[in-house]
Write a structure and sequence with these properties.
Elements lengths: L1 H24 L1 H6 L6 H7 L1 H7 L12 H14 L5 E15 L21 E11 L12 E10 L4 E7 L3 H7 L10 E3 L2
Antiparallel strand pairs: 1-2, 2-3, 3-4, 4-5
């Protein structure tokens, strides 16, 4: 009787532990709550995830070259691939330019109001094969796009805005791509 109870208890603990580990392995959970997972567990069970998150190193980009800023945008996308799902290949930064808050509405991104001093910013566009559907279920149809854009705060070294599925006259002209539609999908950071 004791052996049966012990076996049932171990079985119950196993069923509870497996979903817990599975939940911890979820990319977005690890990405958003990385500090809550002890480093030895992260390294042991999720070494690939740990490497992915270390791709992007936040640092000031004020004195960075255009190439370094473009690479930071690519690295940010790769490190946050649960948010910016990459269907295939590696995204490539194809466009960047300094941008002021007053110029942002022309991009279709809306108004930006900085309560303090406006930081130096850079608009960066990546070309790749991105999934907009947000679904991990194979039965849901995939909605793909080829562009993702960021507005980087160069002092902070991170994006303050991101959009996928670029559209409108501004990007049609800037990217020389007449196929871009009129609607825009923004992504919360």
């Amino acid at each position: 009787m004791k052996k049966t109870l012990l076996s049932l208890t171990l079985l119950l603990v196993s069923f509870c532990a497996i979903p817990s580990v599975a939940a911890l392995s979820d990319r977005c959970l690890i990405q958003n709550q990385r500090s809550n997972i002890p480093p030895e567990i992260l390294k042991t069970f999720f070494s690939e995830e740990n490497n992915r998150l270390n791709i992007f190193q936040k640092r000031p980009l004020i004195s960075a070259s255009d190439q370094e800023i473009r690479q930071a945008a690519v690295n940010y996308t790769l490190a946050h691939s649960c948010q910016f799902k990459i269907i295939s290949g590696t995204p490539e930064a194809i466009f960047n330019r300094p941008i002021k808050a007053a110029e942002i509405p022309a991009t279709g991104f809306g108004e930006f109001d900085f309560k303090e001093e406006e930081p130096p910013m850079m608009l960066v566009v990546l070309k790749g094969n991105f999934d907009l559907s947000g679904s991990t279920f194979p039965s849901h149809p995939r909605r793909s796009t080829k562009y993702t854009a960021y507005i980087f705060d160069l002092k902070a070294g991170t994006p303050i805005f991101a959009a996928v599925g670029l559209s409108g006259k501004y990007f049609r002209d800037a990217l020389n791509d007449p196929t871009l539609p009129d609607d825009l999908v923004s992504v919360g950071l």
